[in-house]
Design goal:
Strand order of the largest sheet: 3-2-1-4-5-6-10
CATH class: Alpha Beta
Order of helices and strands: EHEEHEHHEHEEHEEHEEHEHHHH
Largest sheet: 7 strands, parallel
Structural class: alpha/beta
Strand content: 15-25%
Shape: globular
CATH superfamily: NAD(P)-binding Rossmann-like Domain
Number of domains: 1
Radius of gyration: 20 Å
Distance between the termini: 24 Å
Helix content: 40-55%
Bound molecules: nicotinamide-adenine-dinucleotide, 2'deoxy-thymidine-5'-diphospho-alpha-D-glucose
CATH topology: Rossmann fold
């Protein structure tokens, strides 16, 4: 094998797309997917590649420093793509400790393990930390974009924990010379997203005729990127980005929540053969999320100018593909809503 990459959080939404891309595109890399399989981890996301000879799954917790040290030694890891995290803002409001533990202490344990394993032999090594645009805070509705030099201003326990982890990655680069790179990405959408997040939750609720809970007045703005475009950006930056740098990744694709929701309703109703707008009546305005950031929007020109990456998919095409995928993969969704998916690990890996 040419090199061994440790991908953390590979059983989650974005991680599963990154694992799939690297396993299929780089048959001469050994890909080790380390995941704790929290409620958000689902090995069924990787069923199509789980038997590939260059793929290994390890169940483990990034907070377990000793286990991370063992993993680095056992697999001779020379690259890390770190996605494992608690990722849902609403959960962070209810349970900030879990977010500090995993996102801050877990990232620190992984950094320390990498530093120890690599020492001064840094040639060909890279620690790639996946972060979010939420660390930059909120923009006004009438303009501005987050750049790589925008001051950090996190508002939720989730974004505070991600900001803290970003600072630790920079500190390890600046203090110990750890070869590290960070990216901050906007909202992803596409297949395999856990249905607590806006788009899959709403598609599933439309299908079942359940209420669509719109926070506040639905006026918050997010910048949406198709998840496979994010995975492609990660591939580009992992191989060609510069150590010590931050790159913003975004779709140049801003939507007010309520406008996005109307598009999701229109496409879902059409694909279900219902009259146009039939599900608009499901829209239910509910109490706003506490500390709800008004607008996020990413300026990803640095990534385009330096490394030539840009989004490949127009939103109309991406949302059509996404809705179609959830409707065509109802058993995947039903396994989650019934809790069945949590047994897959035992069936697949325990008996070996
Ligand atoms: P997700 O919640 O779908 O997946 C997270 C994965 O991490 C799960 O498989 C979970 O089991 C695993 N995990 C959680 N705690 C762990 C631990 N202690 N040890 C090992 N594994 C653990 O998340 P996602 O939406 O795929 O996000 C992945 C990363 O990308 C996160 O770091 C998130 O902050 C970042 N991000 C997400 C988005 C987005 O729109 N989803 C946008 C920008 C950045
Ligand atoms: O910006 C990047 C971030 O995008 C990532 O770092 C996070 O991991 C990811 O979860 C996502 O965070 P958001 O909070 O933006 O995503 P979510 O899907 O939860 O919400 C999108 C918007 O829709 C947000 O403004 C809140 C609103 N919303 C969400 C839900 C779940 C609703 O109005 N109703 C809902 O039921």
């Amino acid at each position: 094998m040419k090199r061994t990459l440790l991908i953390t959080g590979g059983a989650g939404f974005i991680g599963s797309h990154v694992v799939r891309l690297f396993v299929t595109k780089y048959p001469d890399y050994r890909i080790v997917n380390l995941d704790k399989l929290t409620y958000a981890g689902n090995l069924a996301n990787l069923r199509d590649i789980e038997k590939s000879p260059n793929y290994t799954f390890v169940r483990g917790d990034i907070c377990d420093y000793d286990a991370m040290r063992t993993l680095f030694a056992e697999y001779a890891v020379d690259g890390v793509i770190h996605l494992a995290a608690e990722s849902h803002v609403d959960r962070s409001i209810r349970d900030p400790f879990t977010f500090a533990r995993t996102n801050v202490m877990g990232t620190l344990a992984l950094l320390q393990a990498a530093k120890e394993a690599w020492g001064n032999a840094r040639e060909g090594k890279r620690f790639y930390h996946i972060s979010t645009d939420e660390v930059y805070g909120a923009l006004p509705l009438d303009g501005g974009l987050f750049t790589e030099t925008t001051r950090y201003d996190p508002h939720s326990p989730y974004s505070a924990s991600k900001a803290s982890s970003d600072h630790f990655v920079r500190a390890f680069h600046d203090t110990y010379g750890l070869p590290a790179v960070i990216t901050n990405c906007s909202n992803n959408y596409g297949p395999y997203q856990f249905p607590e997040k806006l788009i899959p939750l709403f598609i599933n609720n439309i299908r079942h005729g359940k209420p669509l809970p719109v926070y506040g007045r639905g006026e918050n703005v997010r910048d949406w990127l198709y998840v496979e475009d994010h995975a492609r950006a990660i591939d580009t930056i992992f191989h060609r980005g510069r150590d010590g740098e931050t790159y913003n990744i975004g779709g140049f694709n801003e939507w007010r929540n309520i406008d996005l929701i109307r598009v999701v309703i229109r496409v879902t109703d059409r694909l279900l053969g219902r009259p146009e707008g039939a599900s608009e009546k499901l829209i239910t305005y509910v109490t706003d999320r506490a500390g709800h950031d008004l607008r996020y929007a990413i300026d990803s020109r640095k990534l385009k100018e330096e490394l030539g990456w840009e989004p490949s998919l127009q939103f109309e095409e991406g949302i059509e593909k996404t809705v179609r995928w959830y409707l065509d993969n109802q058993p995947w969704m039903d396994n989650i809503t019934s809790g069945e998916y949590e047994r897959y690990y035992e069936e697949m890996y325990q008996g070996r």
